[in-house]
Amino acid sequence: MNFSELLWQDTEHIFEACWENPFVQGIGKGDIPKEALIHYVKQDFEYLNAMSKAKAIGITKCTSREDMIMFKDTIDFVLNSETHPHHNLCAQAGVAYEELQGYALAPASQHYVLHMLHHAERGTLGDVIAVTLACPWVYLYVGERLMKEVNPNAGHPFNDWIRFYGDREEREMYKYIDRLDELAETATEEEKQRWRTLFMEGCQLEYMFFEDAYHAKDWPFARTLTDGKKA
Fold first, then answer.
1. pLDDT at residue 172, as a whole number
2. Angle at the Cα of 108 from the Cα atoms of 103 and 114, rounded to 5 degrees
3. Confidence class of residue 191 from pLDDT cuts 50, 70 and 90?
4. Which of 36, 41, 129, 130 could bridge across to 198 with cysteines, CB 3.0–4.6 Å?
5. Which of 161, 125, 142 is nearest to 44 (CA)?
6. CA 19, 24, 174, 60 torsion: positive or negative?
7. Which 8-state DSSP code applies to residue 98?
8. How far apart are CA 173 and CA 213, in angstroms?
9. Is there a contact between 51 and 64 (Cβ–Cβ < 8 Å)?
10. Which helix (H) or strand (E) holds 17?
11. What span, in angstroms and rounded, lies between the C-alpha atoms of 151 and 141?
């Protein structure tokens, strides 16, 4: 059994929970509250900035140009292509994309970002891959399943979002899976256990991201200091 197959066994139930989440189901049905769409884009814009930083940290852990290119290509994709599904959600919410940028992270999103950057900075190449792998894997899973079960046409409100994640031929994610499998062949049991834990935590945080977006969860009190400045 490859290491990535073990990761799947550990977390298949969380992938299923992500699929059943009302945000993902709402994407499929073409019916999501405006507030949920806005919350999602605000949080995902900042999350993807952090993902780019984590991948950049990954480059510093590389010893081969092949690995460096792998991370570089992902950074380029996140910064220049993954804005496309955001524009789809903004169009449905009736809000300009630029209006939803620069907001503070909500609790679960902040934890996810800090978790990812902490382990990327302090860990090994394997840690960087493991802690950033849940996001693309979960989105591939729900995207391909939406394509299969919904098969949206051009008139579907979230056709662009679904096709962006579920209808691409080349998947950079598989390069990371293959590389982690290679690293696992010579890794210690302690390292592999850590990677399994990081990946599982990432999957759980992906679920929380969808959950918080649908319910537009935020801090319980306004993030305003006594002098009127934003915290």
1. 85
2. 80
3. very high
4. 130
5. 161
6. negative
7. G
8. 24
9. no
10. helix 3-20
11. 14
Length of the chain equals: 231
The amino acid sitting at 187 is A
Q: What stretch of H or E contains 192?
A: helix 189-214
Q: Tell me, what amino acid is at 205?
A: L
Q: Please check whether residue 70 is in contact with residue 15, taking contact to mean a CB–CB distance below 8 angstroms.
A: no
Distance CA 89, CA 156 (A): 12
Which pLDDT belongs to residue 76? Answer: 96
SS3 content of the chain, % helix, strand, coil (to 5): 75, 0, 25
pLDDT digits (tens, 9 = 90+) for 63-79: 999 999 999 999 999 99
Residue with tokens 């991370």: 71
**Secondary structure of 107-165 as H, E, C letters:** HHHHHHHHHHHHHHHHCCHHHHHHHHCHHHHHHHHHHHHHHHHCCCCCCCCCHHHHHHH
Joined together, the tokens standing for residue 155 give: 């008139």
- Kindly report the number of other CB atoms within 10 A of residue 53's CB atom: 16
How sure is the predictor about 170, in pLDDT bands with cuts at 50, 70 and 90? Answer: low
Mapping DSSP to helix (H, G, I), strand (E, B) and coil, where does residue 224 land?
strand
